[in-house]
Amino acid sequence: MSTGLNRCGKSCRLRWTNYLRPDLKHDSFTPQEEDLIVNLHKAIGSRWSLIAKELPGRTDNDVKNYWNTKLRKKLTKMGIDPVTHKPFSQILTDYGNISGLPNTATRMGSFSRGLNNASVSVSGLSYTNMNDLKPLVEQFQVLNQETVQPHFFSEVPSSSSSSSSCSNVTQLSSPQSFPCQPSQAQFTPSSPFSWNDFLLGDPFLPTDLQQQEECDPRGTFSSTSPSLVTQNEFPYCKFNGLGYKDSNAFQYGATTGDDMGNSHKASSSPASSFVESILDRDSEMRAKLPELLGESFDYLSI
DNA sequence: AACTGAGCCAACCGCCGAGAC
DNA sequence: AGTCTCGGCGGTTGGCTCAGT
C-alpha cells in the first residue's frame, strides 16, 4: 500500500509507536520512574520492552535512550557498574580472584591506571571504558582458557541481550574447540597471559593478538568482515553488541588487513598509546590516499 | 560571531520468531 | 518443508541543540 510517504511500513510503525501515539508521555522521567528502571534493569537486564511495560506512557526506545544517556552515567558516577549493578570495588575484588595473577594490590593499581589511561583517550572514566575493555577481556578469555577463569564479565545478566551478545557470554563457561585456535599452543601455562602487562601496556594493542593473527588469518578479530567468521568457529571474533566505533577502535590493534597490520607494527611498543596508534594510522592513510584515489589529495584542505 | 564538544533523541539497522502461503 | 512478510526487539547512528570557549 502506498501512503505517499517516503517511508516504509516499518518506519511508520516505529514512528507511531515511539513518538506519535497519543498515550505517550513526552515530559522528563520522574525519580520514581528512574528508580524503577534501575531496579528492573538490575533484575532483568536490558529488556527494554519489558521495562517499558512497567512505565505507562513510555516506550522501550524512551527507556533505552534514557538509560544510555542518563542513568548509565549516573550509576557510573556513583561508583556502580551499570552492567552488573555492582560497586566497582566489588568488581575489582572479583577481578582479583582471577587465577595466575600477581597480588591484588598491584593489580588494583594497574587496573585503575588502565582505566585512567583509557579515560584520556576516550571520554573520561565511564562505562565506555568497561565496554571497550569487555571484548578484549573476552578475547583473552578465549585465547587463554587454560589460565584465565571466565568470571569477570561473565556476570553480565543473561538477560542483558536478546540475540547476540548474551549468547556469547554464556558460551564462555562452555569452552568449545575453535578452528582458529591453533595459536592456543602459544599460550602455554609457561607464558600465561598477564593482566598487569595488558593493562600497563596499550589496552588496544595486546601483542598476543598479533601472534594470533599471524598464525591464522581466519581466526582474526576482524570487524571489517565479521561475516567471514561464524560464531561457532570463534564466537568472540564478532564483537557482538558493539558498534562500529568500538570495533574500529579495536581494529587499530587487531586487524589482519594489510594496512592495519602495518600500522600496529609501528605502534606495538609497550609505551605507545592508543592515540599514537591512531596518529600512525592517520599518517598512513594520508600517505595512501593519493594512490587510492589516483590523484593528489589532501583531505585536510577540504 | 564562529567553533567545538557533549548531550539528547528520533530513526535506522540487523536479527529473530511467528504466521501465512 | 521452504519462502516470504511482518512485527518485535536491542543496539547503534546521525543530526540537532546548546553550553562553553
TrEMBL record:
<dbReference type="InterPro" id="IPR015495">
    <property type="entry name" value="Myb_TF_plants"/>
</dbReference>
<dbReference type="InterPro" id="IPR001005">
    <property type="entry name" value="SANT/Myb"/>
</dbReference>
<keyword id="KW-0238">DNA-binding</keyword>
<dbReference type="InterPro" id="IPR017930">
    <property type="entry name" value="Myb_dom"/>
</dbReference>
<feature type="domain" description="Myb-like">
    <location>
        <begin position="21"/>
        <end position="71"/>
    </location>
</feature>
<keyword id="KW-0677">Repeat</keyword>
<feature type="domain" description="HTH myb-type">
    <location>
        <begin position="21"/>
        <end position="75"/>
    </location>
</feature>
<keyword id="KW-0539">Nucleus</keyword>
<protein>
    <recommendedName>
        <fullName>Transcription factor MYB35</fullName>
    </recommendedName>
</protein>
<dbReference type="InterPro" id="IPR009057">
    <property type="entry name" value="Homeodomain-like_sf"/>
</dbReference>
<dbReference type="Pfam" id="PF00249">
    <property type="entry name" value="Myb_DNA-binding"/>
</dbReference>
